[in-house]
Amino acid sequence: MQWLVDLLEARRDDLVRRIYDAADAGRYTRYTAPALGAWNDSVKGLFGAFQAACDNGIVPCAWGPDDSVNPDDPVSGFGIREARRHRVRGVGFPLFLGMFKLYRRGWHEVVAEAPVQPEAALAAHRFIDCFYDVVELGICADWAQASFPGVDQDIQEANRSLIRQVAQWRTVFDSLGEPVFLLDPEGRLQSINRAAYQRFLGVGPGGLDRFGLVLAEAVPAVGAPVNDLTATVKGRVQGRYTLDTIDGPRDFDVQLSPVQSLGRVPAGTLVVLRDETDRARTERESEDSQRVTAEALRQTEEQLEYQALHDALTGLPNRVLFLDRMNQCITVARRRAWFHYAVLFLDLDRFKIVNDSLGHTAGDQLLHCVAQRIAECLRPGDTVARVGGDEFAVLLSDLHDVGDANHVADRILAHMARPVMLGDQEFLPNVSIGIAHSGAGYEKADDVLRDADTAMYRAKSLGRGRTVVFASQMHSEVAQRLSVEAELRRAVEQKEFVVFYQPIVSIPGGVLTGFEALVRWNDPTRGIRSPMDFIHVAEETGLIVPMGEYVLNEACRQAAEWASWLPEERRPTISVNFSVRQFASGVALGEVQAALASTGLDARYLKVEITESILMEDSKEVHEQLNALAELGVQLQMDDFGTGYSSLAYLHRFPIDVIKVDRSFVSQVHAVARGEVVRTIVLLARSLEMGTIAEGVETVEQLGRLCGLQCDYAQGYLFSRPVDGVAATKLLRDGVGWGDLMTAT
Question: Other C-beta atoms within 10 Å of 364: how many?
Fold first, then answer.
């Protein structure tokens, strides 16, 4: 037994020497000499107890960590089994393990009570753990070599293997990225890895109190037990807590797992803390992002819904929303006989002039102004919508009387009478209004809007700037118009048009000086049809453009034929009417140039008749085309002069050669007022060096009055109705004149 005592004492002395050497070298400057001395004394006391046991013949083969014999101790039990397997007598292998477990416990207790810094405590703890492993394995090797000399080589190899395994385990344990605590069955801290020290070093007792742990300041040992925690660990349990660390509060996912030794005896608890702060933050940020995304999506959906139901320019409801509200009114009207509503369809007159002359920006400004003025005339529950380019609709619900809609229309017309400034230009807006009432028993909103639209077109045809209430007979008129439009398109494709010519006679000589070319429709089923049946449809649909081109070419061809055999002094001029659409589309000048070139007609013999509506376009393109026609030598005649309110303002701005006095003045030329108008027109034209032609002369009395007013030319049924090309040629060949009529006046 003495050899064993000597061996333990040698190991103890070597251990003490190393600790003191380290302290002297300055590695553990905070370890005071009294603390080291107390530890050395405790170790000596342990050896004294061991020496006494040996002297009394006691073989402590099951000496456990609490200095008592414990046959059930797993470590001692392992030693007993090893001793029995090798059939060894005397002191057993467990003695060495028990003694050095006492060494390590004593060291931990000394360090826990010493006023040391956290860094020093960590270093000391790791040193004694590693040294214990080496001492433990060394004792085993020394004991095995002394007891079994024949297996020295095998024992050394096993010793080296164990040392490598212990080193590997320690390396793996310290390399774990999350804090790991190993508690013994009593809840005391057995080991802690590097990540735990880095997270909790210097935190103080509050750092782990939420788990029942009390971490002494800067000491790798836990003073308070956690039996209440470990006693409940039957399997793996998990929770999440917020702990104070050296980096501030962190969220940890806590996992507790029981540790079992041989024989499934509980040997402690493994506590693993997984830092979930970043993930929790990511989850919170994700939740915030989802809330923001959901809110943005909701706002986007609301914006898309608003855009789908409102006009982008004016902000008013669009056609879709307007029809929806109309359907709601129709539903209420079917259930309640006393409920009345009305729809007003409004179209802005002469809006194209604003766009073409002042630009689309001014046009948008005008639409804004019109929308605002309409809204000012309505009640809070009424709806105004923009349903087209320059078209608006108003829904008046819950009316007390059907006449209320007319009152609203009158208010709107009155509000529109105020001029609006578009840039530096003053413009007087005006609207035509059609009204449809609920009394017709409508079933669909589209039908109401259609009838109001029909009434609006009737208002335009009656002179614009007025209100018309829809009547049932308008349906047949619309159907007839659609039928005319379809037939007219076929007629243009089949070239069913012919040109008639009405003589123009000089006053007072009565000489035939020219013809006005007038279009007629040679309908295969109805015969020759008057322009009154189709010209307005051709204007609205744009078919007037190809139709006008045909009339121009045919008239120039006929005039060129007459000029080929008539002497120059008898060659007639040919007057051709041009539509506003021909000038607005920019084709008028090109059509004239092409017609003159293809027929060889001298431009002097062509007169282009334009209406006041063309001049009211007042666009740069119209100016250029009219000036170019004048430069070609083509004469320009203003038709229907006196029927517009602004004709006089345009006379000095355009190269007009002849003014045609409208038939409405000629038919009443004997009346004082009308006669004075004609006199004024003739005097004005003469002062501007323009000629005058009186239209619609039907009586000798009218002709005499025109002679007295010194009008230059006349045309009408008094001289001849419009005739075809053959009859007109005969008039020229026969040299027909109307001098006798002039004599009769």
Answer: 15
